Amino acid sequence: MSSREEISTELQERMIRFIANVILFNHAVSAKLGLGASDSQFMTLLQSHGPLTPRQLSEHTGLTSGTVTGVIDRLESLGLITRQPDPNDRRKVLVTPSFEAIQEKLIPLYEEQGRRIQAVLATRTESELQTISTFLADATTNAQPMD
Q: Distances in Å between the alpha carbon of 76 and those of 37, 59, 81, 91?
C-alpha cells in the first residue's frame, strides 16, 4: 500500500472515530435534557438549515410524519422550538429554533467541548486550518444520506 493510501485509510478511520465520539457526546447532552437521539438531530438540522416545515424535517431524517410530530411536541414542550405560520404559505407551519432556550439550555453543555476543539485548532497554521476547512466542506457536500 502506498503512503497516500495509508494516509487516506488512516484519515477515514479517524473520521469514523471522530463522528462516533460526536454522536456519543450528543447522546449524553440529549440525555441530560431528557431528549432522544432524534430530538437532538432535529435541533442540529434546525440550527444548520434554519426554520423547516415538518415535511422537510421528515425528508431530512427519513422519519414518519407521526414520529416527526412527536419530536416537535417534545422540543416545543422544552421551549427549544416554536411552531410559526409559514409567511409564504399560511397552510404550512415552520418549526423554528428558539435561540434564547438554546443559549440557556444547550450552549452551556457544549462550551467545554468547544474550548477543546479551539485548543486543537490553535495548534494549526492558517494554511492547515484552510486545508481542514476545505476538506470538511468537501466531505459535507459529498455526504449522501442512505436511501
A: 16, 20, 5, 20
Q: Considering the entire predicted model, what is its pTM?
A: 0.75
Instruction: Check if the beta carbon of residue 53 is closer than 8 Å to that of residue 90.
Output: no
Share of the chain above pLDDT 90, in %: 60
What does each C-alpha distance from 128 to 11, 90, 120, 133, 140 come to in angstroms?
15, 47, 12, 9, 18
The pairs formed by 36-41 with CB atoms below 8 angstroms and a separation of 24 or more are 36/71, 36/74, 38/63, 38/67, 38/71, 39/71, 39/74, 39/75
